[in-house]
Design a protein that fits this description.
mainly alpha, 5 helices, two-stranded parallel sheet
Length: 125
């Protein structure tokens, strides 16, 4: 994902994802999230260096045109719909990562409401 103006500048200059400025997420809890290394491996894109900038608020950094981020629809969907962010053309890849919910039967009302919400979020993907 990138801010439209940055994406247009990079593409006009002939810069591909193999050379685009990357935004990384700074979080002690992101060891279960896919990162750029995972993305490039799954996309078969050779990239010599994974350097870039690291931010806590990486979405704001991308909106500020500081670089390109990995975007999950659940996080970026509204910004894409509003035109604030754009997908890099041809960049979508399934990294095989999922969340699973296990619930016992019978389910409480609050459990069912939570499951309904999870399913609604997944429908936007």
């Amino acid at each position: 994902m990138a801010a439209p103006a940055l994406l247009e500048r990079l593409q006009a200059a002939g810069v591909g994802l193999d050379r685009a400025p990357l935004i990384h997420v700074r979080s002690p809890h992101n060891q279960h999230w896919a990162g750029w290394e995972d993305y490039f491996r799954a996309s078969n894109i050779p990239r010599a260096r994974l350097s870039g900038q690291t931010f806590n608020n990486y979405v704001q950094a991308v909106l500020d045109q500081r670089g390109v981020m990995l975007g999950w629809r659940s996080i970026t969907g509204d910004a894409v719909r509003d035109g604030a962010l754009r997908m890099w053309p041809g960049s979508e890849v399934d990294l095989g990562m999922s969340y699973y919910v296990t619930a016992r039967v019978p389910k409480s009302r609050s459990t069912q409401e939570f499951l309904d919400w999870v399913m609604m979020c997944g429908e936007s993907d």
